[in-house]
DNA sequence: TTTGAAAACTCTCGCGC
DNA sequence: GCGCGAGAGTTTTCAAA
């Protein structure tokens, strides 16, 4: 099983990252390949894990997620167990879209989606701040989203 | 044109955010609706802008985007023109996946995807730092990605 | 990788609730 | 208004070469 991507594979990934509703027929036309070839390539790209999933991207403001916040969290204890415990607990909160462990002075940065500041405040008090081992939390709030892309350049 | 979502619409959005490869037939079965109804609902959800697009989510490590960084950028000038100019220029860089204007002391936070630290360094020196009006840039680097979700709770 | 044919799915229309 | 059935038109799938 070769894992290297040839130019056709890369082009498929480039296109599907932007629009995964294209039919195999349309893709085949763009790539000058047969439909069966395109189908086979995509199947392999999924099997090999290049494509993790195909999802719908929603307009968050329309579904009442008007506020995005980035709390930076510093922990008291930095043992392996403490880090893992924090990650495990924080992942359970539905407001937490992403959780990254960082280098530097902040241990973690989260991306939180809530409807408004009141809801965020409740999340902070009733959920995040109740976790053991938290030292400090400094929250940044998004005023505007200038660029938001899920497609990596390939 | 009503804009409120009924429980069926919400369930459709919930499902498609996690897996948009389900056929209308499968969705119809899950929802106890007819195929035609499901089809009609999804069409409306796209037309009304709830669903912005359907995309493939890739495994970034497999496509040589091993490093995610969050540079926080402070500008010198804070006029409307200066902010807009910065947003416009930064959006052109292919390494920039996201750009948020923030409240608080940092003006912007970016999410940058590169293959490694060397490439990030080049991005910083040759691209980001060449923009006019930048005061300071403080970069955080991701050690590990604990949670990464594109699906909002609905 | 391609072809070709069968199976599955999509999408629209018109009727009924 | 909303949902459903049926059918033509597309797309996908899976042989075999």
Automatic annotation (TrEMBL), chains A, B:
<dbReference type="InterPro" id="IPR036390">
    <property type="entry name" value="WH_DNA-bd_sf"/>
</dbReference>
<dbReference type="Pfam" id="PF01037">
    <property type="entry name" value="AsnC_trans_reg"/>
</dbReference>
<dbReference type="InterPro" id="IPR036388">
    <property type="entry name" value="WH-like_DNA-bd_sf"/>
</dbReference>
<feature type="domain" description="HTH asnC-type">
    <location>
        <begin position="5"/>
        <end position="68"/>
    </location>
</feature>
<dbReference type="GO" id="GO:0043565">
    <property type="term" value="F:sequence-specific DNA binding"/>
</dbReference>
<dbReference type="Pfam" id="PF13412">
    <property type="entry name" value="HTH_24"/>
</dbReference>
<dbReference type="InterPro" id="IPR011008">
    <property type="entry name" value="Dimeric_a/b-barrel"/>
</dbReference>
<dbReference type="InterPro" id="IPR019887">
    <property type="entry name" value="Tscrpt_reg_AsnC/Lrp_C"/>
</dbReference>
<protein>
    <submittedName>
        <fullName>DNA-binding transcriptional regulator, Lrp family</fullName>
    </submittedName>
</protein>
<keyword id="KW-0238">DNA-binding</keyword>
<dbReference type="InterPro" id="IPR019888">
    <property type="entry name" value="Tscrpt_reg_AsnC-like"/>
</dbReference>
<dbReference type="GO" id="GO:0043200">
    <property type="term" value="P:response to amino acid"/>
</dbReference>
<dbReference type="InterPro" id="IPR000485">
    <property type="entry name" value="AsnC-type_HTH_dom"/>
</dbReference>
<dbReference type="InterPro" id="IPR011991">
    <property type="entry name" value="ArsR-like_HTH"/>
</dbReference>
<keyword id="KW-0804">Transcription</keyword>
<dbReference type="GO" id="GO:0005829">
    <property type="term" value="C:cytosol"/>
</dbReference>
<dbReference type="GO" id="GO:0006355">
    <property type="term" value="P:regulation of DNA-templated transcription"/>
</dbReference>
<keyword id="KW-0805">Transcription regulation</keyword>
């Amino acid at each position: 099983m070769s894992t290297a991507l040839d130019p056709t594979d890369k082009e498929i990934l480039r296109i599907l990252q932007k629009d995964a509703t294209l039919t195999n027929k349309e893709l085949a036309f763009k790539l000058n390949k047969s439909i069966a070839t395109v189908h086979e390539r995509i199947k392999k790209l999924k099997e090999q894990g290049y494509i993790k999933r195909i999802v719908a991207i929603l307009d968050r403001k329309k579904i009442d997620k008007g506020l995005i916040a980035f709390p930076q969290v510093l922990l008291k204890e930095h043992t392996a167990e403490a880090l893992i415990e924090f990650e495990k607990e924080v992942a359970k909160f539905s407001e937490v879209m992403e959780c990254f462990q960082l280098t530097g002075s902040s241990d973690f940065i989260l991306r939180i989606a809530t409807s408004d500041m009141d809801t965020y405040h409740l999340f902070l008090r009733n959920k995040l701040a109740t976790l053991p081992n938290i030292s400090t939390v400094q929250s940044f709030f998004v005023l505007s989203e200038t660029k938001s892309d899920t497609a990596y350049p390939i």
